Structure formats: C-alpha cells, structure tokens
From TrEMBL:
Keywords: ATP-binding, Cytoplasm, Kinase, Nucleotide-binding, Transferase. One of its GO terms (molecular function) is cytidine kinase activity. Pathway: Pyrimidine metabolism; UMP biosynthesis via salvage pathway; UMP from uridine: step 1/1; Pyrimidine metabolism; CTP biosynthesis via salvage pathway; CTP from cytidine: step 1/3. The gene is udk. It comes from Romboutsia lituseburensis DSM 797. Its main location: cytoplasm. It is an enzyme of class 2 (transferase). Pfam families: PRK (PF00485). This is Uridine kinase.
Amino acid sequence: MKNKKRPLIIGITGGTGSGKSTVCKAIMENIPEENIATIEQDAYYKDQTHLTFEERLKTNYDHPLSFDNKLLIKHIDDLCEGKSIEKPIYDYELHTRKQDETVNIAAKDIIIVEGIMILEDEELRDKLDIKIYVDTEDDIRILRRIQRDIKERGRTVDSVIEQYLATVKPAHDQFIEPYKKYADIIMPEGGQNEVAIDIVISKIRTQLN
Ligand code: CTP
C-alpha cells in the first residue's frame, strides 16, 4: 500500500441481480491489481457448518442477521490499518462457508465492499467513503437471478421463484430499497452504465495519484 494512507472504501450495493458484481468487475479491470481489492458481503454469510444441509435450506439469506457483519467490519478496519485479512469463501450450493479455505487479501489503496445489505447496518455504512446504489428494474433483476442461480448456484426455476416471493422480494422492500437514500451515487442499469463507471474510475485514479 502506497504511503500507508487510509484506503478509499467504496461500497457498491443494490438488489439481487442488479449488476453489482459487473460494476465491480468493470472497475477492477481498469485499476492495477496492486491497488485495489474487493470484499463481498456474501463471503460473510454466517458460518453454518454446524447445521445439517436441510437446516441450512431453512435459513433466510435475505435478512440482515444472516450476515456476520461484525467480522466484515473487523476486516475493513484491519485493511485500513494496513493489515492483511483472510476473507472467507462462501459456498452457495452447500449454503455455508468453506472450511479451512480463505483468500488472503493484502491492504490496498482502494477497497470495494459489495453486497445487498451494506447500507442497512449503520456501523458498516459509516465505514464507506463512497456509497453506490446500482438501480435496476425488478423484472430485469429477477430474470438475471433465475439464470444465474440455475447456472451457477445449483438451483431450480421453482426454487428460485419460491425463494424470491418468500424472502428475497420482501427483504428488498424492507432492507435494501429504503436505504438507497444513503447512497452518494445512484447508478441506473449497473454494468451497462459506462458513463457512471468511468466517473468512478476517474475518482479512483485521482485518489491513487
Ligand atoms: N443467497 C442464496 N443462498 C445462499 C446465500 C445467499 O440464495 N445460501 C442469495 C440471497 O437470497 C441474496 C443473494 O444471494 O438475495 C445475494 O447475492 P446477489 O446480490 O444476488 O449476488 P451478487 O453477485 O453479489 O450481485 P449482482 O447480482 O447484483 O451482481
């Protein structure tokens, strides 16, 4: 990390399927790897290895209490102090953290924190220097989620629709959308919004210089 300056922490949030990871990827691709790291709130879903697979299926993954924000905040603090962290790895098919496997993340000048509920927790929100809300229409988000969860997360169409109606949508209306008011930047169309992404990249480059 250059000059041991406190890193710039950028929060990227928005509903499921809004394109948060595409925005992160676009930013990461344009900034040298040595300067930037992403930590996903999803990696901090609470460890559920003590539960059976059937019990894990009953967890509501769209409630703030399902995240270990305490550890996430500690890791942000560690990175700010120039320490490296061991970021957990989350397994969406087994619904828990991987055991004995983490990713080592060194302190960097720019840290992106990406996740659905990073603005809802006040302590976490206050750690973020720039808060971006990726704002994508609900129909587009659910269509993307169906495709992604089947291709990448081992789900069926029925299970995705059932989960969406039971927990994902109500949580969006309760814990995600109302917190848009805390965002500094609202980014319509997410990954497709090249102008907005370029502005964020320029801000990062200014910070690095
Ligand atoms: N989730 C799940 N099963 C788990 C853990 C999480 O289905 N065991 C789901 C939650 O229901 C939550 C979603 O994962 O709604 C959060 O990830 P999401 O925001 O959809 O993915 P990202 O790739 O981070 O974001 P984007 O789609 O915006 O790129």
